[in-house]
Amino acid sequence: MTLNIAIGPIPYVGGTRTHILKIIKFSKQKLSLINYSPLSFYSPLYKGSGFLLRHKIPFIDPYGYYLAKMVLPKYDIVHTHGHPYWWDLYKRPKRSKAKYIHTVHQIYYKEDYADKLWPWLNTLNERQFQYCKQADIVISVSKWLQEKLKERCIDSVHMPNGVDIEECEKANASLFREKYNIREDFFLFVGHAGKLKGPDLFVELAKKMPDKLFVMCGGGTSEILAPRNVIALGYLPHEDILNAMAACRVFIMPSSKESFSIVMLEAMACKKPVVATNSTGIKECIIDNEDGYLFELDDVNELHEKACKAWDNPKMGIDGYEKAKKEYNCRNVIRRIDKLYEEQK
Question: Could you give the C-alpha distances from 95 to 81, 105, 253, in angstroms and in order?
Fold first, then answer.
């Protein structure tokens, strides 16, 4: 039985975008993507919407109202993702043919963001909790996240993110080295420059290892003050990120919180040793000293110790690859999502 499913809205960048695109690619259902539209003031094209949201200034969104009330209820299933930034789209009608599924990818925490952003992010958290209580099914991408939702009296189905193993296997280290003129072995960081992702900790590690090369990829990283042995490339296309993973010697993830990192899974699928913080959903993917290395949050000395071990133990990358291939292949994850869809009819 083929179902008509609306899925989205899709962010311009990030792990949520990657996850939605893989569902569209591998699902056997008929999926229609919910795109941000210039007809709505919530479109990322209009930076003023972020200002209005942060300051809780109301504005009218006729197009979002039209989609929520007139278009989406006609589908068999509406599968929304992430925080309800486009708020009018997430207002479920009382009478709807569609069943509503929502995947929670993240919860924001005050300690990870600048004070001026927190009121806005906290509003997005509260909107998400409110919306989850209206959904027919809520999906958590990690057991850690599932427990956090349970604290809010929200029951959810645990379904981890997946990674496209074949896409990672095709990643080309030589293309990355040629394009960015990088010949040496290097440690790799992928993530935005915000506090959550821990770029400062990566830079501190680079200072402790001046004889090694460090490469940073992600929005805002090119503006970080760093020593000479750090190459900060800024935002890169996804293909270049995978090629960077194929080229690196060790992948470092110093994030304070990750519900379930697709980027880390991709590094594992590229057969690279991974060093990551022993926290949140990250430690659900890695067993320390078996298929990766874990260090305590903000402990740069332990990070240095584990980074040295990973550098000298490339075989760890093969173990991580086997685990990613066995447990987190996105084809298998999306079969589970398809089964969940079918159970709603």
Answer: 21, 27, 45
